[in-house]
Amino acid sequence: NMEMMQFHPTCLYNLEVKNFLVTEAVRGEGGHLKLPDDADDEAGERYMQRFDPERMELAPRDIVARANDHEIKRLGLDYVHLDISHRDPEFVKGHFPNIYDKLIGLGIDMTTGPIPVVPAQHYTCGGILIDLAGRTDLPGLYAAGEASESGLHGANRLASNSLLECFVFGDAAARDIQAHWDDLPAPPPIRPWDESRVTNSDEEVVIKQTWTEIRRFMWNYVGIVRTTKRLERAQNRINLLRGEVEEYYGNFRVTQDLIELRNLIEVADLIVKSALARKESRGLHYITDYPELANEAVDTVLAP
Q1: pLDDT average, residue stretch 35-39
Q2: d(CA 180, CA 182)
Q3: Which domain CATH number covers 289?
Q4: N or C: which end of the chain has fewer CB within 10 A?
Q5: Residue 61 annotated as catalytic
Q6: Catalytic hit among 61, 226, 230, 278
Q7: Tens digits of per-residue pLDDT, 21-34?
């Protein structure tokens, strides 16, 4: 289920700070999503009533993230506004002291004005298939947390479940390892490098360039709202880059960055293949070619 990729709806938009999430509790305590000043005639308007009229800003993450993405793309904006400045300043400071302090340090006062926010990739609900003890189908390999597909989340992770999941499955895996330690197979021997076969590369820029390209086309082609055509374009790029990276991998000394790049391509490929295999929209996977739920739920377990 690697297509089940969650996007947090309200990540701070700031060129100096990356990946600072503004908690959903801000919306839960009355924060409004509005269009910013550069939205021309619609500046300052709330828009969630067009996407979920009953729940508005309290809709699930996937709906709010798609709404924010839609408005940003529709109007060519850089961000939308999350505004809780209509609440009492002391209430805001008391409920969100860490967010308040962080934003004040960036010149943003959430008690007097809005917070610029954008959707951001957050959490995956798919991954390595495990049982209730955290075991995979490879003896001795355990997985817990975001790397795993435990079935706990289904197609849409609820807020604040990640820490609990790590505690539960981490503890289960540790207990199983302790109980079966003497039965676990010994690790295979590691063959020494053939130093005559590889050399240091003077083209590290190749790794950086490919890394950047993957991030860009995955966001643009495999993002919050998908289409079959964009997914196919992403698949074509992955196939091309895989060949380039494998050629590079076979001729130069292996580095951590090179291994991570090869892993990135593998993960990107699994996400795209999973998304193409699911002919419906469900939870975190929304594709315009198949906007409705299928009659029966199916897991997209891919063949090797």
Answers
A1: 89
A2: 6
A3: 1.20.58.100
A4: C
A5: yes
A6: 61
A7: 999 999 999 999 99
